[in-house]
Amino acid sequence: MSNINLTKPEDLNANNGGNNNNNFNNNQNNFAPKRKLPNSVAVLVLGIISIPTCFCWGIVGLTCGIIALVLAKKDMALYKANPENFDLTSFNNLKAGRVCAIIGLCLSALYMLYVIVVLAFVGTAITAMPWANMH
Amino acid sequence: MLPCVFVKYLGVECPGCGTQRAFSALLKGNILDSLNYNASVIPFLLLLIYLILHLIYNFKNGPKTLVIWFSSVTFILISQFVIKLILKG
Question: Does B43 touch chain A (CB under 8 A)?
Answer without folding.
Answer: no
